[in-house]
Amino acid sequence: MLLISVFRSYWLRREPEADENRLGPYLLKQKLGAGGMGDVYLAEHQLMKRHCALKLIHPENAGDTEMRKSFEQEAKATAQLTHWNTIEIYDYGTSSDGRFYYVMEYLNGFNLSECVRKHGTMSPGRVVYLLKQLCDALYEADCAGLVHRDIKPSNIFLTERGKSCDVAKLLDFGLVQSITQSPITLRGVSTKIFGSPSCMCPEQAVGMRPDSRGDLYSLGAVAYFLLTSRPPFTDEDPIMLIVAHATVEVPTFQEIGATVPEDLANVILRCLSRNPAERFHSAREVREALESCECANDWGWRAAEDWWNRHRPRDVRDNQASPQSQPSDDTSQIASDPSPTASNQEPRINHEEPTLILKRPSELEAVVL
């Protein structure tokens, strides 16, 4: 009887520890990253034996209605999209302790911010190669009535899929908005500014609701960064960056001493027009313009495969640790956190400023009013 009691007590003590490693059918194998909204784990579906990335909301955020709404919105919005160049969502649910999670495809590679930091600027041909893929993803989102609102280098992942190299994946739909949602009231004190200052479109910078052309501006800012290793505007103060997007024309490539083919430069600078009416009308139009660039065929699958053979990052699945371990120093896995709330604990993979949601600051009064 005593032996049975001891045995039972032993297993009761172990059960919670074992449960920490499991979430429904998923085994949590290693923490990949952490951010303001939640943690991202390398996980495995126990029946399908498929690796995936599982994002689990922080316990302290489980009761936050706004946070839960944003988390759920991201999962549902992304699940609507099926394009090859958009991150795929596999599952969504609630843990036994009431914490929300969703499961997405596991990606090994680099986000674009990390790639430029490690390997330098990209050739014009390669930039066109990646931009065309992103245009396809954005066109599908536009047709679904969705505006991403937070396109930036760290929200675009470069990976390999199905033996194809240099596959660009659009991530982090945490700020996505339907074009049918009510617009923001500009003059009310509740006006908020959403997005990342380095790539924010002018209309977003003054608290207006951008349409799909706002995403094209941000895509142009990403292209500008890939070619020059700097965003269109630079300032340590995020408020001044926001003001710059709203009031200043983007410097041309010649003005900053960068050599970019004229036809490609014209496409990018048109995307970066302050007036939405002067931009391309759709991502498909941008793609057509990119295909007309002289450098459009300078990069293809052979060049991509050669680059990846020389720079392929270590796959974290080759060296799995326990879920309680700290994230690896190798940041080349999908581990970014699309939390729209600025946090002191930024994702390890993200080397940009965090996405902001902030009340309209006094510095922007002149711009808005």
Report on the structure:
The protein has 369 residues and is of the alpha+beta class. It has two domains: 20-106, Phosphorylase Kinase, domain 1 (2-Layer Sandwich), CATH 3.30.200; 109-313 and 351-368, Transferase(Phosphotransferase), domain 1 (Orthogonal Bundle), CATH 1.10.510.10. The chain is built from eleven helices and 13 strands. It has helices spanning 2-20, 65-79, 112-119, 124-143, 202-205, 212-228, 238-247, 262-271, 283-291, 301-311, 365-368, and strands at residues 22-23, 26-34, 38-45, 50-57, 89-94, 100-105, 109-111, 146-147, 156-161, 164-170, 177-178, 192-195, 356-359. A six-stranded antiparallel sheet has the order 1-2-3-4-6-5. A three-stranded antiparallel sheet has the order 7-9-10. It has a two-stranded antiparallel sheet with strand order 8-11. β2 and β3 form a beta hairpin. α4 runs antiparallel to α6 (212-228), α4 runs antiparallel to α9 (283-291) and α6 (212-228) crosses α8. The longest helix is centred in the middle third of the chain and has 20 residues, at 124-143. It is globular, with a radius of gyration of 22 Å. Mean pLDDT is 81; it is low at 2-18, 179-190, 322-331, 335-351 and 359-369.
Topology:
Layout: H1 2-20, E1 22-23, E2 26-34, E3 38-45, E4 50-57, H2 65-79, E5 89-94, E6 100-105, E7 109-111, H3 112-119, H4 124-143, E8 146-147, E9 156-161, E10 164-170, E11 177-178, E12 192-195, H5 202-205, H6 212-228, H7 238-247, H8 262-271, H9 283-291, H10 301-311, E13 356-359, H11 365-368
Antiparallel strand pairs: 1-2, 2-3, 3-4, 4-6, 5-6, 7-9, 8-11, 9-10, 12-13
Helix pairs in contact: 4-6, 4-9, 6-8
